[in-house]
Amino acid sequence: MHVPDGFIDAPVSVAAGVFAVGAVAVSLRGARRELDERTAPLAGLVAAFIFAVQMLNFPVAAGTSGHLMGGALAAILVGPYTAVLCLSVVLLLQGIFFADGGLTALGVNITVMGVVTVVVAYAVFRLLTGLLPRTRRSATASAFVAALVSVPTSAAAFTLLYWIGGTTDIPIGKVFTAMVGVHVLIGIGEAVITALTVGAVLAVRPDLVHGVSGVAAPLKLRVDGELVDAPAATRDPEPAPARRSTRGFWITGLVSAFLLAGFVSFYASANPDGLERVASDQGFDEKVEEHGAADSPLADYGVGDIENARLSGGLAGVIGVSATVVVGTGVFWVVRRRKEEPGEAPRDRDHENA
């Protein structure tokens, strides 16, 4: 749901840009509490993975496709503040280098796809994990619901902005019904991808899932063949185990992102996404303006002067993933380092052994 230039008028675009800058500023400060020596590179990996998966449009209805937004996935894996930064990095690179999402609409896109999806998804996820049994299955189901809810909510947020500053006189009720309707279907795809990814990480490295941090099931003892909660007095304190290295997980995740963007993306649906289809059906796509980066050598996720579509798209995907992981990791390392500046609370050095 990348909003192009021309859909929203200048005053509302500027206001959304100011809001987005404020959200990023708050997230930069909040991310200091979420990031450490291990999670900073993992946050860069999450941004790169979201970039890759967003290239995989999947069909949701006749002539319509959708793609992952990633707000729920990022919030659950690395925390809500860091997630806003992840989405902001992805949207910024997509807009500047790949002509995906308008440059004047960057604030709108960060607000709708970054802030709204993250806040809604994380709130729903934490609510459900607090109510449901503390199991991996419950956490995965909570991720599914959180992602499902976040997508149509994001579509509703776009509709609100369009109601305030849309550049065409279209009945807002029709826009709302069409946007939310198609994005409920897209939300199902987002929910499946999010649940599968979160479930996979929980299966191999639950310690790396921010959304379940601090949520530990009570110690179980087998009594007469049945598992029961151990009395508090019998839980002997043990020294915290040394943290496992994240290197293997990081390499596996990055290779997966390269494969998705460089190879699997060739088989993505070529149909217009939900916003494009609604804009076409409702007639407000006539106001779209030419992208400021339309002449970029990577515009439309292809490398200029390479005629082979498979090679061009795959190479563009690999370049995009590489740029995202480098820029994202750099941003998160800077944020983490600022945590150690004078005036900030010192970190627990015992938790830095990767």
Automatic annotation (TrEMBL):
Question: Which superkingdom, per the lineage?
Answer: Bacteria
Question: Which intervals hold domain PDGLE?
Answer: 247-337
UniProt keywords, alphabetically: Cell membrane, Membrane, Transmembrane, Transmembrane helix, Transport
| Any Pfam family | CbiM
List the membrane topology term(s).
Multi-pass membrane protein
Q: Which InterPro entries match?
A: CbiM/NikMN (IPR002751), PDGLE_dom (IPR025937)
Localisation: Cell membrane
Where it mainly occurs, coarsely classed, is: membrane
Transmembrane regions: 7-28, 40-60, 72-97, 103-128, 140-164, 176-204, 249-268, 315-335
The protein depicted here goes by the name: PDGLE domain-containing protein
Source organism of the structure:
Streptomyces rubiginosohelvolus
Question: Could you read off the lineage of the organism from its UniProt record?
Answer: Bacteria, Bacillati, Actinomycetota, Actinomycetes, Kitasatosporales
